[in-house]
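User: I'm writing a short methods note and want a consistent example. For DUF5018 domain-containing protein, I'll paste the sequence; you return only the structure tokens, no commentary, since I'll be parsing the reply automatically.
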Amino acid sequence: MKPKRFPLFLGLMALIGLLSCGKEPVDEAGLLITGRSQCYMTFFDLLGSDHRTVLVSGQTVIDTTALTVTAVAKFGTNMERVKPYCSVVTDAIVEPTMGIWTDYTQAQKYTVVSGNRQVRKTYTVTVTVQK
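Assistant:
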């Protein structure tokens, strides 16, 4: 009789496991919506056509109060075609999506959205070329 109990036990445990999974809220992109309301940028970088950073080391300043990012690109950088990347606090997202070729001859705006999708902060990113 023991061999028949084990498969029954496994089946019952699998059923309990499936039924205990709750439906978590997700946004339109399929990302999990959490309870976190923090919303800020922690790191910013620009990559050139060779996929290496074009920013001068130590010259990037992220001001989370003024919601600005200022950076200096290396002399000779083609600012019309660079890829921005950033890091944000846990569970936050950035709009519009970074990682695509972007023209940085003018300041760009990016909105950081909190994990609960209720707090939005728009950062202005300004990059100048080293002289």
